[in-house]
Amino acid sequence: MQKIFFTALIGSLISLDQTVFLQIMISQPIVCGTIIGWFLGNIQFGVLIGILLQLIWIKELSLGGTIPPDSTIATIIGVSIPLIINNTNSLSTFISIIIGILAGISSMKTEIITRKINNKIAQKVENLVKMGKFEKISIVNWQGILIAFTKSFLLIFLVLIITIPFLTKILIINIYGIWQEMFKIFLLLLGLAIIIEKFLIKQQYIYILITGFLFAFILNIFNK
Amino acid sequence: MKITKFDLFKIAIRTFFLQSCFNFKMQNFGFLYAITPALQKLYEKKDKKMAFERHLELFNTHPYMASLITGFIVKLEEKKSISGEYDFEEISKMKKTMCSVFAVIGDELFWNVLRPFVAFISLSIFFINFNILLPALVFLILYNIPHLYIRIAGIYKGYELNYDTILDYIKQNRIQNIKKIISILSLFIIGFLIFYVEKITTNSIFNLKKEITAIFFLFFVFGIVFLIKKGITTTKILVILFIVSTILMFIPK
Questions:
Q1: Among candidates B120, B119, B201, B186, which has minimal Cα distance to A31?
Q2: What's the pLDDT at B185?
Q3: For B201, which of A118, A140, A185 is closest by C-beta distance?
């Protein structure tokens, strides 16, 4: 319970960085995965899931007023579930990532509600301006931050508190064999393919990719 | 009253809150919050109220590039407070044009080019070094040097330059060149990374030579790119990969 509470607290503070405050990119999967992994005692797992989700999410862009699925919430949940239930095998990782992605989509949907609330705050600001109470604008500004924080906190907390007792029971299946690592590799290769598709602005650029591969190949031979 | 460099610095810090109350008029409140110290300093009572009301209109641009527009508007407000000259319609039009131009440039430069590129660099470090803290640190440092520069220096630049020179400040064609260079570099790095993909596992998956496994992964990636190009969604591919890896999981080696 304590772990869930503090994960939700740290997670909601990190998620403020996404749009509300700073935007220095601590909310990016690669960074927030590392932070949550560190907090829950397995940085390596956090970094790995962060990198995988960073790759998968690379195509999603927050352009103009559009709201993409929330990659921060997805990463926080994807990293924290396996670490809280102390089970980081492929099945557990996959289910956590799926729950994370669904939570990320829910966060995107609830963003519309947040904007409606913010609209009321903006209306309040307009009234304050009309009344000449300019110094109160700064205080009202914090209400927007508080709303975004509360939204993320509730979402992370509720998802973790509901899913963890359930997943602890169903994910005790004893999976053996080295193949459990396969899913991580598949995810990584999928992520790389998504980026290739994004940056392959010209067909002939494929030779540059092959050159990079051959460079690593030759380097490996020399390092033997 | 004149706006000092310290006033501009205060405004630059406030631009970090530009989207704290993102509403249907987008960042209008964030923009007003950012320029509040300038308006408070420049105007007295009635004029102050009018100045605040002027900036309640819709404001929507890239959050980092907003600094240039903010600096520019602060200078216009300063001029207005000294000489009284201020064509509201004209300024509003300029503001909207700058917002649209900088939104396109910022989205392309920061979201579409810099962020994925810095992610690759961090990823490469993870693969080459397998250091667990370095990727996040490198990501934050490399990304935030240009980000913080444009956020802080942008206010001063916007305050110094005039309307036309601001629009010339970042040329669209220059960004296209940056995108081309970054695409080439990224593809080279990806090619390099594919060779080291197996490194993320604790043991070798196949009883094959490292080079053979790498070539298999290269063709596997080409296969996925082909499927994506054919219009198959990444979610579908993800589910297929999960099913395959789950079946493989239960097969003893």
A1: B119
A2: 85
A3: A185
Question: Cα–Cα distances in Å, from B157 out to B69, B162, B167?
Answer: 9, 9, 12
Structure tokens that stand for A15 in this block? 């998620």
What the block records as the tokens of A116 is: 């409606």
- Whole-prediction pTM: 0.82
Cβ pair B246:A141 closer than 8 A: no
CA neighbours closer than 13 Å in the CB half-sphere of residue B227? 18
pLDDT of A62: 47
> How far is the CA of B103 from the CAs of A178, B7, B99, B210, in angstroms?
48, 25, 6, 46
How large a percentage of chain B has pLDDT more than 90? 19
3-class SS of residue B59: strand
Q: Which amino acid is at A166?
A: F
Interface contact A43-B133, CB threshold 8 A: yes
Structure tokens at A164: 């963890």
| Among the partner residues B21, B53, B144, nearest to A144 by beta-carbon distance | B21
Length of chain A in residues, anyone? 224
Tell me the H-state helices in B43-171.
Answer: 45-54, 66-83, 88-106, 115-129, 134-160, 163-169
Work out the pLDDT band at B70, boundaries 50, 70, 90: very high
